[in-house]
Design brief:
It is a single chain. Strands 5-6-4-3-7-9 form a 6-stranded mixed β-sheet. It has 25 helices and 10 strands. It folds into 2 domains: 432 residues, Amino acid/polyamine transporter I (Up-down Bundle); 167 residues, no CATH class. Helix 3 crosses helix 10 and helix 9 packs across helix 15. By secondary structure, it is an alpha/beta fold. The chain is elongated.
Amino acid sequence: MTTSSARGGASGPSPLPTLVLAALGVVYGDIGTSPLYALRECFNGPHAVEPTAANVLGVLSLTTWSLILVVSIKYLVLILRADNRGEGGILALMALAVPPTAERRGSYTLLLLGISGAALLYGDGMITPAISVLSAIEGLTVATPVLEPYVIPLTVAVLVGIFALQRRGTGALGALFGPITVAWFCCLAVLGLAALTRAPEVLAAVNPVHAGRFFSENGGRGFLVLGSVFLVVTGGEALYADMGHFGRRPIRLAWFTVVLPALLLNYFGQGALLLRDPALAVNPFYHLAPSWALYPLVALATAATVVASQAVISGAFSLTWQAVQLGLLPRVRVIHTSGDEIGQIYIPLVNQGLLVATVALVLGFRTSSNLAAAYGVAVTGTMVITTILAFTVMRRLWEWSLPLAAALTGFFLAIDAAFLAANLVKVADGGWFPLLVGAGGVLLMTTWRTGRRMLVERLREESVSLEELKQRVEAARPARVPGTVIYMTGHPDLVPAALRRLLRVFNALHEHVVFVTVVAERVPRVEAGHRLEVQPLGLGFFRVTARYGFLEQPNVPRAVSQCREQGLVIDPSVAIYVLSPETLIASPHPGMALWREKLFAFMAMNAARATGFYRIPPAQVLEVGGQIEL
């Protein structure tokens, strides 16, 4: 997932070739670096099979049909149709599958599945940079074993450099992504084709019969190899997640014209190499190259893995932002690295967490083969969830018949489940890590969502309605002072706690009192005509509702200034913004377990300040806080 919107800008839509080039650099970085380690793990990993001719043809057949069925058909043909106003990704799919007002048990289950899928992607985001960069630099040991002690320090140095560059934004780097990836895919194709011409009999693997024979001859061990075969389709979720940035057509065109042919040529080239010399299974990719080309190939592979890592890191930023806007995570500090593109963001907390986790993975697992044991568990889980959510979309939105939707879902779910089962054996070898990260993510998201609902209930118990406030003002007639005050409130029908406290202490109100509520809609972006709603309430009170999609950055001063179009004239540069930061106290009252209430209170206390999140000038903010027992 990228953080830039390549489909348009101030200068209008980009031409198709430009979008295809950009898609190559962003969408296919992860899956494009799989040849570095995927086939190697099938014949040299912990659950490997002997690189006999029959096994080579069987694994290649599984590789070919995995790319065709999972990536080409499932994602590019089927899942890309499920766009949420042009946007894709697991949370966008969840928003399509679960209606905003749904409270049924089945809807909550789908919501929990979407949360789980999103949480699992964080584990993938930690492992992908580590295994990609490490597998690229390990090519140095093919050139000479003398360089082996330098592999881990060089890998750590590259990773630190990648994460250090994030604060500068991806705009400048993005221009290099496409050309680097094009060079990489051309290299994959040339290396594979050169080896293929020496053993063209490997092309027989296109016949799926070889996949069937592989399972019949290897039994349970052959099934376990599926966990390594799955490595060829990791990155498939990025095709869907990046749809909003490039559109369906460029993504599909890039896959069928460049990526798929290059990947197949390289995998078949590696297979041809193993048919001629099975002993090269220890690192078949780098053995495709002549000795004089090893160092340039390592350099190009490292550059390609940097691109792949950059895309995954940017995807983690975007995923976090979507989760915040959908009410699944607390506010986080977001830095916009571009004044033109709304999607170019940098989240320091996520960047730091990914850096620590990625470096720790490299230091802990030491080799890409060890990391491969941890890779795949999270992605297979997310793919299963995507298939289930897609079934709901087929039935609810596309109105497909039950037999058709069930047949398609059952077919792809059988494939996903087989990959998941084969990957679950990796749990003891390192697969526990992405599962642990995913479980932690689910805990945080569900705790935040449930805690917010509890907080709303407590506020409703202690607050009064706006109608009651008007009646009290008419009866008590407090003093009115000149000026405009803006109360930020998440509950448009209730009186903000800050106003109740100020009125009780000073018995005075400003001449104009505006209640602003920011609503996060379950759509990527809200059309300008539906952004604002201004409602006069009488007695100088106004209610303003500002709606934003889950890919948009709220900007309250800008929204307030645009209220003049609906008759409310406010100068946002002189208005006072009143916030009600509440100190939350865990209690034994009915609700969540006490330890989860403490976790929710901790998350709320460490959330980013509303001033930065809503773009409110700090000099114009008045905070009137209090305490609330959960």
